[in-house]
Amino acid sequence: MTSNNKLFGLLVPIISVIIGLLAGAVIMLLSGHNPIKGYAALWAGAFGDSYTIGETIRRTTPLILTGLAVAFAFKTGLFNIGAEGQVIVGWLAAVWVGLAIDAPMIIHLPLAILAGAMAGGLWGFLPGLLKAKLGVHEVIITIMMNYIALHVTNAVIRSVLTDQATTTEAIASTASLASPWLQSITFYSRIHYGILIALFAAFVMWFIIERTTYGYELKSVGFNQHASNYAGMNVSKNIILSMVIGGAFAGLAGAMEGLGTYGTISVMSGFTNLGFDGIAVALLGANNALGVVLAGLLFGVLKEGAGEMPTAAGVPTELVDIIIALIIFFVASSYIIRWVLLRFKKGER
Amino acid sequence: MDYAIEMLNIRKEFPGIVANDNITIQLRKGEIHALLGENGAGKSTLMNVLFGLYQPEKGEIRVKGKAVNINNPNIANDLGIGMVHQHFMLVEPFTVTQNIILGSEPKNRFGKIDLATARKEIQELSDRYGLKVNPDAKISEISVGMQQRVEILKTLYRGAEVLIFDEPTAVLTPQEIGELIEIMRSLINEGKSIILITHKLKEIMEVCDRCTVIRKGKGIGTVNVSETNSSELASLMVGREVNFKTVKKAAQPKDAILEVKDLYVKDARKVDLVKGLDLNVRSGEIVGIAGVDGNGQTELVEAITGLAKARSGTIKLANKDITNLSPRKITESGLGHIPQDRHKYGLVLDYSIGENIVLQTYYQRPYSKAKVLSYKEIFGKAKKIIEEYDVRTPSVYTKARALSGGNQQKAIIGREVDRSPKLLIATQPTRGLDVGAIEFIHKKLIEERDKGSAILLVSFELDEILNVSDRVAVMFDGRIVANVKPEETTEQELGLLMAGSQVIKAGETSQ
Amino acid sequence: TETGDEGSEENTDTESTDNGTEEETASDDYKVAMVTDIGGVDDKSFNQSAWEGIKGWGEENGLARGEGFDYAQSNEKADYMPNITRFVRDDYNLIFGIGFELKEDIQTAAEQYPDTNFAIVDDEVDASNAVSIKFKEHQGSFLVGVAAAMKTKSNKIGFVGGVDSPLIKKFESGFIAGAKSVNPEIEVDVQYAESFADAAKGKLIATNMYDSGVDVIYHASGATGNGVFNQAKDIKQNDPERELWVIGVDRDQHEEGAINDHNVTLTSMIKRVDVAVQDVIEQSKNGEFPGGEMLEYGIEEDGITFSTVNEEAMTEDIISTVEEWQEKILNGEVEVPQTIEELETYQESL
Amino acid sequence: MFEALQSIIPTVLFYSAPLILTALGGVYSEKSGVVNIGLEGLMVMGAFVGIVFNLTFVDIFGSWTPWISILAAMAVGAVFSLIHAVASISFYANQVVSGVAINMLALGIGVYLTKVWYGKGQTDMVDQPFYTTDIPVLEHIPLIGPIFFQGIYVTSYIAIILAFVAWYVLYKTPFGLRLRAVGEHPMAADTNGIKVERMRYIAVILSGTLGGLGGAVFALTIASNFSHSTIVGQGFMALAAVIFGKWHPLGAMGAALFFGLAQSLSVVSSGIPLLADIPQVILLIAPYLLTILALAGFIGRAEAPRANGIPYIKGSR
Ligand SMILES: Nc1ncnc2c1ncn2[C@@H]1O[C@H](COP(=O)(O)OP(=O)(O)OP(=O)(O)O)[C@@H](O)[C@H]1O
Ligand SMILES: Nc1ncnc2c1ncn2[C@@H]1O[C@H](COP(=O)(O)OP(=O)(O)OP(=O)(O)O)[C@@H](O)[C@H]1O
Ligand SMILES: [Mg+2]
Ligand SMILES: [Mg+2]
């Protein structure tokens, strides 16, 4: 029974991805494109050479982190739509420290990363606090906090970090995650050491949730607040903690962009979408750490590969969004896939 | 013979289990027919089949002699079958009227619900059968007893001729049970027929005409109640002899463990429900709190356990002041608590049984070291408790949700008792359980007493209170109004005390 | 019918790219590409104009998209670099980055790929193999400011900016300077939407401005401007007699202003990115790539003009006054301010 | 004061109308127990269809085009929401997951088809959007007339009327009683003979219809064209309005109007000399801060329908 379950657990996402890609092929055919050419371009765009592989990894990095941010909150029964805002403030804080402080790398870089995580955590703290103490729904507060993050960050960039400019100076090299060595072996892609941080963060999430008393409490509160209270857990504290840790993961995603990919922060005229994509990554990854890493990678591959599709095959990049959406549907509807699989197995006997 | 309903050779399977295996039950017109069986025997399943919620794999259902196919509750309604479910099917934010008319609402010209007509009809029905309800009250604001009357009205409103009651008395106070029995009798007088599921043999003996017994999904047979007795029914059901009278030695009370002085507690609506209560429980004794639901028992227990704040007064546990400490601090001071609502408070249903076993102790050695959990220790412990307390579960890794109520309750008791608490509070510990399970739990409580724990038993079952307690404290209107010895009192006397009739005299004795 | 046309165009695009992927393009051909910012190639603004320039050049030289010239669309900030690099690896000789948002990426790419030539539009980069193309938007804004001042009856005009940034401040300063040059008493209401894509905000601002008596609004706000046009047209629809105007930006936005028999687009500040782009392509093809330089296209270089399409609104009178000021700018008599500080000094000098 | 109102109220109404409509859709869906994070996607679909239909058929329908366009958008929105319905009702999908997928799918399809059909990332502007009008008779009511009935989009009134209709339907009719019952306690509804799945399907389709309408109204009153940035966050604001309004149609309308008012005030304030010294950023974040303050201050705890987000699987507990 359990081995059967594990098998299904693996089969369902794989089948979903396959159906999603098939559906994408049908859409390409219907709109007059050549699906083989389209997918060849997608493949080349994601894995074509060392450069694209580097870029794919770079793109995956923040997606894993925002996926973790959303997944972590979900574990405690909270819906963190605010990863977007947490990314932005994390990015700002990391770059700020990267610019403002003069220190050797061994201090500067960790400090900048920590600043990003803390800023994101702070942005998660308020919705957590309001939820825990006043019962205000975290979904609205986090949506509002996204807009506040956007506008406040822009204001800080303009009036504090620069003199009315739209982009800051580049951060000090002592705070940079970028690696000339990694870049040189990937034809100057923007791959940076952030992927290690993302993977480490996934490990941390797994460890907290599955192996520590903190995780035990967080999950318990997510499942049943009354019973958790009865058992002597501090429900409010756990709600806040969950939002703070989730926020910190998202803040880290921002730090990856600020310290790794760009080395700067610019005035934004809209959201980065990293946070919103994080929701999809978390859900596709079934809210567990390994799942999030794999889902983040899938997202990264599809999104990076999509860039090659218009030039090489004339297919609009949005095809990939359609495919991803369909994959999510199929995974979400795993009930029906399981049902079909069971039918299939019975038929065999 | 004139049968209202016949269920013949019904078979119903769930994945991996046969819940009903070739069961036959025939309901005569105008009778109250008991359906008896252990927890998980398949009673609810059988009735859900009759009500159209489940489709049987095999068998035939006849209504007034005609074979029918009931594949959804609408058809059951049309055939005049109504069911009062084990877990109430009421929409909490709705009013009584809304709940009753839901699904067959009277309308006026503008497509608007015609509340006036509905209210009138409900009033008429409730007058006719003596079902006192307030049509405009919200479900969330009325007592469990009234909720049940609403359920009955729902079936009558739909013109039910046959009523199924699935464990209606498990959640009622003795007074309410009395009222329900009256209602059932008046239903019969009006020509209805009733199937009654209950674990309380006394009730079967009191009101039922015949009784069908099932065991582990199989039909054992049907007997005339007038030709049998409780112990025969019990052994039919369990398949062995059952002891009714709990055997125990006289209590050896020692030091005071729980001391409550002049306690005041407010409820969610900010009204004092505990009003200057004094209570002592000593080690080695079981004190039963008898009282009608709503007289402050819940608030008292919540205040002692730290789930609610005491407005004033003191609570001491083994000479330590625990007033308004956090639940964790109180638990650590030596409290064990079997909560009234096992699904809401007792268990995290989505955690495995093993994880539930350490719900209060996960952060202590050996279950965790430096905040890191040791699943080996956790599941090891869980396996021991499962064996010792006879919790029937496929494994310790099974989710608590998948266990039957009785087994969930055994797991909770195992968990609470295993910590060897100085004070064990058991609230309604046997609600909804079959006689076998009840026997087991009572035995465990007494064992624990004999090991030197102080035990506070809160129950609406006078039987249970009288059987298990060494001393009975009667609670009325937020105070303990009398302390009596179980062997020196009767149910009648207790009933009067609980109704507050001897407040002044009892007030003297309680000092 | 329009849909059909577009469809067939798409088909030809596809086919041409089919050939393009064959990889075997002769290396002696000069290949030019551009990377859009998130506005996209058909943003009715500088991306579109730049693409028209490149396409015009390509078609003149008998090339097809994918064979000798191409563009890459960026959907988000993260796309810029991969898009640039893709063209580098496909051996394009000259790669344009359109918009100040691509500044850092063009800078980095220029350093990483010294054998490829780059150009950034609307900002400056510092590399010997990269040229910076800027426009004197302040000049054009000055001219439309003059037109606005001539047109207004209420002596209240408005400016709607996209995101508050040095670039948009250039528009704002020039516009105010132009208006005040005609009439120092004129009031200019300035609001920023903080987005280039928030039509609702644009409409809110425009409603507020027109209600408070503003009768000419100059917008430099991308799709946010849709809301401005929308509001102007709505008022016009209800009250055809009411005189109110929008001044377009970057391209001629005459089409956006059409409402029944009227057109609310007074004029547009036109930025000829196509001219600049073609100019740079020609230079570099002839081996005179202006690497390391900063080219500024203004009125003099035909990089900045204003539109006179709306003949009804842009009367002879207005045109001739605008042209007078244009002359003054050309002969150096007027130095158009580019920042708010410069604007203040300029206003004092009036 | 009077003039200020006369200028603010109409802006509040046009800004809020799409949010009201979409939020009403959200209320229907969530009242029936189906969480709808996909409101954003439904709006995208509505905006896309509204614009494309308008551009394509303007020659045929003339000045009726915007009206027929919103009907088309409602129809497509309804069909599109079926995906969410099938996934979350029949296939027991996690409703949040399905909603997120709806959002991605709608934007993907909208922009993909725009590119395939028009060969570019955004459509042209429509020639026949909605225009404001004065409401006959009512506009002449002293004081009230000029504020509420002059220069108003009819669609704004439709939104407000539909909010009252939704209130009537949900709280006064048998249909509404059943729909709410299904969202609170589906098994109770089931035992009363109500078809839980069918009620939920209807509710989700209503949310698709209203979301499509909301998106189309936004496109045809405010944006005038369709691109990837036409609907950015309005659906999430509508979701916020659903929760802010405590899952009540009139509450959701109030919340949407509150958002509109806050936005309008932030624009108006920057023109008021007294407030001119306030940093721009404060005005920009004011609408969002006000919402948080309102929730924390006096709106407080909101209880979602009890069965919201839980698939109903017959015969399970
Ligand atoms: N929904 C279900 N899915 C799977 N199995 C079920 C389901 N409901 C009941 N069962 C199985 O059917 C058996 C009978 O359950 P049922 O609820 O009818 O017992 P019961 O006699 O009503 O018990 P109780 O006295 O506790 O109410 C159970 O042991 C269980 O294994
Ligand atoms: N969804 C389900 N899947 C599998 N088994 C189930 C399910 N629901 C109920 N059961 C089984 O049905 C049996 C009886 O369940 P039920 O909840 O009726 O127990 P109970 O003792 O009556 O509890 P309660 O205290 O709720 O009355 C249990 O053995 C349980 O395993
Ligand atoms: Mg049962
Ligand atoms: Mg039971």
Shape of chain B: globular
Structural class by SSE content of chain A: mainly alpha
Number of alpha- plus pi-helical segments of chain B: 18
Q: Please, how many helices of chain A?
A: 16
Integer average pLDDT of chain A: 92
Q: Report the β-strand fraction of chain B as a percent range.
A: 25-35%
Could you please describe the fold and organization of this structure?
The complex is a heterotetramer of chains A (349), B (511), C (350) and D (317). By secondary structure, chain A is mainly α. In chain A, 78% of the residues lie in helices and 0% in strands. Chain A contains 16 helices and no strands. By secondary structure, chain B is of the alpha/beta class. Chain B has helices spanning 43-50, 73-78, 96-101, 115-129, 144-157, 174-189, 201-207, 230-238, 297-305, 327-332, 342-346, 353-357, 375-388, 405-418, 435-450, 462-468, 491-498, 503-510, and strands at 3-14, 17-28, 32-36, 58-63, 66-68, 81-84, 162-166, 193-197, 210-215, 218-224, 256-266, 272-282, 286-290, 310-317, 320-321, 335-338, 368-369, 372-373, 423-427, 454-458, 471-476, 479-484. Chain B starts with a strand and ends with a helix. Mean pLDDT of chain B is 90; it is low at 503-511. With 317 residues, chain D is mainly alpha-helical. The longest helix of chain D has 30 residues, at 2-31. Chains in contact: A-B, A-C, A-D, B-D, C-D. At the A-D interface, helix 5, helix 6, helix 12, helix 15 and helix 16 of A face helix 3, helix 4, helix 10 and helix 12 of D. The complex binds adenosine-5'-triphosphate (ATP) (2 copies) and magnesium ion (2 copies). One adenosine-5'-triphosphate binds next to helix 14 of chain B.
